[in-house]
Design a protein that fits this description.
alpha/beta; four-stranded antiparallel β-sheet; 22 helices; 691 residues
Length: 691
C-alpha cells in the first residue's frame, strides 16, 4: 500500500532524556493513556508502551511517511533538519502543547498503516445515499468498512424513494464468509443487493472461517468478536427489508439499515464508534424515529445507534423542529449550503468547498460523500504567548498534512482526499483559554494563528508537491485525548470546579490492582454489569463558571465567534440548556443560522442515579481524596483494553447498551444509567477481523 524504503529514527541520545520519566498528566491522564493508546511492546510479558515510547512511534511514523514520500518523488530531504524538527514535535507532544487524535496515538507508526493504508489514521467520514439507484449496497458497506477501522461515519437519507425493494431471488449456493473485514462487508453487500435485484441471496451462509470470540487480532490489534454480531446483523437486515418488498426505500429504511450495521460493529467488541444521520427537516417520519411511544421496540433494538440531525436551510421555520430539540436534544442541525459557501465566516463566501455533501458524526468537518478527515488537537490554554502557540500550530499542521500523504484502501475516497487534502487543526480547553488569556486575546490568537496556518500550507504543500488543503481548522468536541493533559474538552464548559469523574473498568482488568494500590476510591457497579467504578478527583484550575451557569445565548455566541475567527470547517458544540431556556431554542436557531454551520443541544436535568460520571464535590472533599493518592504504577502489565477508535467526541459514540428511550446521550455528559460505560468501558477489543 505504501512503500517504505527507509525508516526515520529519532536519535537515541534524544530518547534517553525521556526514559523512566512521566509527563505532566491530567488527573485521568495516565490511566487514559495506558488503557487506550499504549500498544503491547513485549508479547512475552505483555508490557505496554510508556508515553515516551508511544511518542517515539508516532513521531518516527510521521517522519517516515514524509521521508518516503520525498524519496518516491525524488524531492529534497534534509536529514539533519528533519531530525531537529522531529525532536521538536516530540517535545511539544510531551509537554501537551498538542496531540494527534486518538487514532494517531494508537495507529501512527504501526505496520498496519504501511500495509493497509491511512484510513485507520482518520477520525471520521461521510457518505451520501443519493446514488442508491446506481450502487445500492455501497454506502452501507462503506459505513461498515470504515466503522470496523474505528472511523466514525455520518450518512444522509437523500436516497429515499430512489429504488424499490424486491423479494430476494435465492441462489443455489453457499456463501462462505472470509475471516476479514472485507469478508464481512462482502456478505452485507450480497444480501443488500439481493433486495434490489442485483444479486441472488445465498441459500446458505457459512460462518465457520470466522475466528472465535476472544481470539487476538494481530495486525490491527484488539480481540475478535466471533460470528455472532454478523449473524444478528443479517437477521436484522431481513427484518427491515423483507416487509418492504414492493415499496420504495424510505428514510426510515436507510437509517435503520445504517443503525443495524453500526450495532453489529459495536456488538463486536468496541464500545465506541460513531454514526450521525442527516435527514430533511420536513420529513416527519424521520423526525419521529426515536419517539419511544411510536417506536420503543426499534429504539431499544437499534435506533439508539445514531445521533439524528437535519440538513437545515437558512430561512426555514425552526418552530417545530426546535421545539422537538428542546425535549431531548435531537435533532441537531447542519447548514450544508453555508458549509459549501464559507470557510471562516470572517472571510466571506468563496464557494471553495462547493462539493460538500454532509458532515462527520461530531459535525466539525465539512465533507464530500466518501471523504474522510483527520484532526489534531491543540491546547491554547497551555501556552503563554501567541508566538509560542504559532510554533505549536506548525507541528500540529505538519502532523495532519502528513496523514494525507498516504492513500487509503478505497479508490473513491482517495480521489477526494488527495484532491482536497482536508485537515482539521482543533482546539481544546477553549473555555480555559478564555479565562487565562481573555476572550479578546484568544480570538486574536485564533485570527492570527489561522493566517499563519494558511502560510504554512502554501509552503509545505509546495515542498511536498501536493495541493493546498481546501479547509484546515475546526473545533472537535474531544474525548479521551483532552483527559491526558486534563483540559476541558473542545469549546465546552466544565462540570464544576471540583468533582469526581467516574470511569468503569471491567472486573477482570489488570488496571484494577494498580488503582487500588494508588488509593483511588473503587466501588462495585450497582448495575450488576461486572465492572468496578473508579472515582478520580478533579480540580478545574482555570474555572469561573460551570455549564449550568452559562446561558444558551452565550454558548451560541462562543460558537459563532470561533466560526468567525478560527474554524473554516466547523465548530462541534453541544449547547446545554436549562428547562426555562427550552422555549428559546427556535429563536436562537433563527438568529444564529447564518453565523454557524452546525449545532446540537442537550437539556440539563438533575440526575439522582448513583455512580454518575460527573459528581460535584467541595474543595474539602477534593483535598481529602487527593491526600490519599499515591503515584500510579502500570509497569509490566498488559492493558489490552479498548482503543479510542473514532472521532474522539463522546457526543458521537455508539454504546453497546441501548440508550434509554427518554434520553439521548449528547456530548458524553449527564448520561443515563444504561450508558454509563461509554468511553471508559475498557474491556472490549477492536472489531476488525484482520489476519
Amino acid at each position: 500500500m505504501f512503500e517504505v524504503r527507509e525508516r526515520f529514527k529519532l536519535a537515541e541520545s534524544f530518547i534517553e532524556q525521556y526514559k523512566g520519566k512521566q509527563p505532566d498528566w491530567g488527573p485521568l491522564g495516565y490511566i487514559t493513556f495506558k488503557r487506550t493508546y499504549a500498544r503491547v511492546v513485549d508479547q512475552t510479558t505483555g508490557r505496554t508502551e510508556e508515553y515516551f515510547e508511544t511518542l517515539r512511534r508516532v513521531v518516527e511514523g510521521c517522519y517516515t511517511i514524509q521521508l518516503n514520500h520525498c524519496l518516491s518523488l525524488k524531492l529534497p530531504w534534509k536529514r539533519e533538519k528533519a531530525q531537529r524538527s522531529a525532536q521538536e514535535m516530540f517535545r511539544l507532544m510531551w509537554d501537551f502543547k498538542f496531540l494527534p487524535p486518538g487514532r494517531g496515538l494508537w495507529m501512527m507508526g504501526s505496520e498496519y498503516i504501511y500495509l493497509r493504508g491511512s484510513a485507520a489514521l482518520n477520525n471520521c467520514a461521510f457518505v451520501s445515499t443519493d446514488e442508491l439507484d446506481t450502487d445500492f449496497a455501497e454506502p452501507f458497506c462503506f459505513l461498515m468498512d470504515l466503522s470496523m477501522l474505528g472511523v466514525g461515519v455520518a450518512f444522509d437519507t437523500e436516497g429515499a424513494g430512489s429504488v424499490t425493494i424486491q423479494e430476494p431471488a435465492l441462489g443455489e449456493y453457499t456463501h462462505q464468509v472470509e475471516d476479514s473485514k472485507e469478508g464481512w462487508c462482502d456478505l452485507i453487500r450480497v444480501v443488500l443487493n439481493s433486495y434490489v435485484g442485483r444479486a441472488r441471496r445465498p441459500a446458505k451462509i457459512d460462518y465457520s472461517k470466522i475466528r472465535p470470540m476472544g481470539a487476538p487480532i494481530n495486525t490491527f490489534g484488539g480481540i475478535a468478536p466471533g460470528p455472532g454480531p454478523l449473524i444478528e446483523c443479517i437477521e436484522n437486515i431481513t427484518k427491515i427489508l423483507a416487509p418492504r418488498a414492493g415499496h420504495e426505500i424510505s428514510s426510515t429504511d436507510i437509517t435503520d439499515l445504517m443503525n443495524v450495521i453500526g450495532k453489529c460493529v459495536v456488538s463486536g467488541g468496541v464500545r465506541r464508534t460513531a454514526e450521525l444521520a442527516l435527514g430533511k427537516p420536513t420529513d416527519q417520519d424521520y423526525l419521529r424515529l426515536k419517539d419511544p411511544k411510536l417506536h420503543g421496540d426499534k429504539l431499544t433494538a437499534w435506533r439508539w445507534a445514531s445521533n439524528n440531525s437535519v440538513s437545515a436551510e437558512v430561512g426555514m421555520d425552526y418552530h417545530d423542529v426546535g421545539t422537538q430539540t428542546a425535549k431531548n436534544g435531537e435533532p441537531g442541525y447542519f447548514w450544508r449550503d453555508t458549509a459549501r459557501a464559507y470557510g471562516r465566516m470572517k472571510d466571506g463566501a468563496t464557494w471553495a468547498d462547493a462539493k460538500v455533501a454532509g458532515t462527520n458524526p461530531c459535525a466539525e468537518q465539512s465533507l464530500e460523500s466518501y471523504e474522510i478527515c483527520n484532526l489534531v488537537e491543540t491546547f491554547p490554554s497551555r501556552h503563554g504567548s501567541l508566538d509560542e502557540y504559532k510554533r505549536t500550530l506548525k507541528f500540529a499542521y505538519l502532523y495532519a498534512k502528513t496523514v494525507t500523504l498516504i492513500p487509503t484502501h478505497n479508490e473513491r475516497t482517495n480521489a477526494i482526499m488527495l484532491r482536497n487534502r482536508r485537515i482539521g487543526l482543533s482546539q481544546s480547553g477553549i473555555v480555559e483559554a478564555f479565562e487565562k488569556h481573555g476572550k479578546r486575546t484568544h480570538f486574536e490568537w485564533c485570527d492570527k494563528g489561522y493566517e499563519y496556518i494558511c502560510q504554512l500550507d502554501k509552503i509545505y504543500s509546495s515542498w511536498l508537491c501536493v495541493p493546498t488543503s481546501v479547509k484546515k481548522t475546526s473545533v472537535k468536541p474531544s474525548g479521551t485525548v483532552s483527559l491526558m493533559p486534563g483540559v476541558t474538552p473542545g469549546i465546552h464548559y466544565a462540570h464544576s470546579e471540583y468533582y469526581f469523574r467516574t470511569i468503569r473498568i471491567d472486573k477482570t482488568s489488570k488496571l484494577v490492582e494498580p488503582l487500588k494500590k494508588a488509593g483511588y476510591r473503587i466501588e462495585e457497579s450497582v448495575y450488576g454489569d461486572n465492572t468496578w467504578v473508579v472515582y478520580f478527583p478533579v480540580h478545574e484550575e482555570n474555572f469561573s463558571r460551570s455549564k449550568t451557569q452559562v446561558s444558551v445565548w452565550e454558548q451560541m455566541e462562543n460558537v459563532a465567534q470561533m466560526s468567525y475567527y478560527w474554524a473554516d470547517n466547523q465548530v462541534s458544540a453541544t449547547v446545554t440548556f436549562r428547562p426555562e431556556e427550552a422555549a428559546d431554542i427556535p429563536y436562537a436557531l433563527e438568529l444564529y443560522e447564518s453565523r454557524v454551520k452546525s449545532i446540537s443541544f442537550l437539556p440539563l436535568t438533575d440526575h439522582n442515579y448513583p455512580q454518575a460520571p460527573y459528581q460535584e464535590i467541595t474543595k474539602e472533599a477534593y483535598d481529602l481524596a487527593v491526600a490519599k493518592l499515591k503515584p500510579l504504577n502500570f509497569e509490566s502489565i498488559n492493558t489490552d483494553e479498548a482503543q479510542d477508535l473514532f472521532c474522539d467526541g463522546d457526543k458521537c459514540e455508539i454504546n453497546v447498551r441501548p440508550h434509554m428511550p427518554e434520553q439521548q446521550e449528547m456530548d458524553g455528559v449527564d448520561e443515563a444509567p444504561e450508558v454509563l460505560a461509554e468511553a471508559e468501558t475498557e474491556d472490549a477489543g477492536a472489531v476488525t477481523q484482520e489476519a
